[in-house]
Amino acid sequence: MPNDDFHAWSYFNPVNIKFNVSASTELVTELRGHRYAVVTYDEPYFAKICKELEDLVGPAECTINDVQPNPDCQILHEQCERLNSKVTNIEIIVALGGGSVIDTAKVLSASTLGFSKVLDFVTNEKKELNLPSIPIIAVPTTAGTGSEVTCWATIWDETEQKKYSLADPDLYPKYAIIDPSLMVNKPVDLTMATGLDALSHALESIWNCNANPVSARYAIFAAKTIIRDLPELLSMPKNLALRENLAEAALMSGLAFSNTKTAIAHNLSYPITLKYGVTHGIACSFTLPTILRSVAKIGGFRGEALQEIFGTNLLKGADMLTSTLSAMQVKMRFRDYGANQEETTNIIDAAFLGQRGKNFIGSKEDFLVSARAGNVV
Q1: Domain 21-178 falls in which CATH fold?
Q2: Chain center to CA of 14
Q3: How far apart are CA 220 and CA 215, in angstroms?
Q4: How far is CA 206 from CA 2, 209, 232, 367, in A?
Q5: Which of 96, 175, 322, 335 is the most buried (most CB within 10 A)?
Q6: Sign of CA dihedral 257, 260, 265, 269
Q7: At residue 34, does pLDDT exceed 90?
Q8: What is the pLDDT of residue 6?
Q9: pLDDT score of 5 more than 60
Q10: Of the candidates 254, 252, 283, which has an alpha carbon nearest to the alpha carbon of residue 267?
Q11: pLDDT tens digits, residue range 168-205?
Q12: What average pLDDT score do residues 318-328 get?
């Protein structure tokens, strides 16, 4: 069990955050006079924003608009070649979109000497990237991943059925511009998945060996806000006030886990996404009640943080969380997503051996007791 002594801890996040502002106005201020590239989606909504930006500051030197969910090695390699083929040196990358866009922008930022250098770094688990990077302005259009305030990106390899984490302090975005009005038209299923991703980030940063009192305060605010407002937002997706609340909560989740990284729920989620195609936000949240039950006896500031969110009885809090997720049609069992008993056992064993599993303050034994009691496995 981690030491709850507050006498030695640190918190760091260098991102310049601008919240509830006009994204176009802020971008004009930061981009004027600079050569920039845009990373975004190939959708009319984003094309319109890019055209408005072009009219104000001039055209982008390069636009990468074929970003896919869960960016895969193959497409990232092609995108890096396109960006690096430009004669002019890009000074800023604008990441306009959700977590996959911002993750892609980070990979592109680090790939000025070629994607192979980045792939070598992540596959060989080198400690220092030591590659030149391009500053990023992150403009998230979903409330979920928190990637706008972290220094890592997820790289997927569908062929090898693997997931890699690209992490380097130089990959913190220079600016995060959070404009909730950009999120109003997002579909309900995406809103739910990204909101649950943010909830998972908040809770994962608490039951985490790397938690600190600053990250805990961010996480408490985020989790309470999401549990309170996400169900209502799903019934009123055009409500700007609720969008603002979720955007702020997702930002706070990002600030929390930017210092702790994630834990066991995320390690459990990766094979569920890779092998069974389950959306990341669902995959990393369906085990949250089980994990909460498994740490119900936790003390110290982590226990106090969880009790501030769920009440003094964390077992009842886990039941409440189950009800909240079930009301959103989130299923709680591994087999509901296609994993049989043997596959589930293998997923759990591997998850606790991985680095994110080692971040978790609890034990595999307590998790299994909780999972069996809840008929999760």
Answers
A1: Rossmann fold (3.40.50)
A2: 18
A3: 9
A4: 12, 8, 25, 16
A5: 96
A6: positive
A7: yes
A8: 54
A9: no
A10: 283
A11: 999 999 999 999 999 999 999 999 999 999 999 999 99
A12: 98
CATH number of 188-373: 1.20.1090.10
The Cα-based distances of 238 to 21, 126, 142, 241, 317 in angstroms read: 18, 45, 13, 9, 29
pLDDT, tens only, 325-377: 999 999 999 999 999 999 999 999 999 998 999 999 999 999 999 999 988 98
Q: Do domains 21-178 and 188-373 have the same CATH topology?
A: no
Mean pLDDT of all residues belonging to the chain: 95
67-to-40, 101, 208, 258, 265 alpha-carbon distances in Å: 6, 6, 31, 23, 26
Higher model confidence: residue 215 or residue 112?
215
Residue ranges of domains in the chain: 21-178, 188-373
User: In the numeric block, which tokens belong to residue 377?
Assistant: 């496995």
Do 253 and 198 contact (CB within 8 A), yes or no? Answer: yes
Residue 272 has pLDDT above 90, yes or no: yes
Which pLDDT score, from 0 to 100, does residue 90 have? 94
Which range, of 111-115, 145-149, 290-294, 343-347, averages the lowest pLDDT? Answer: 111-115
Q: Please enumerate in sequence order all residues whose Cβ is within 8 A of that of 191, keeping only pairs 6 or more positions apart, or say none.
A: 142, 143, 183, 230, 233, 234, 237, 246
Report the distance separating Cα 27 and Cα 138, nearest Å. 10
In DSSP terms, 138 is beta-bridged to 95, 176
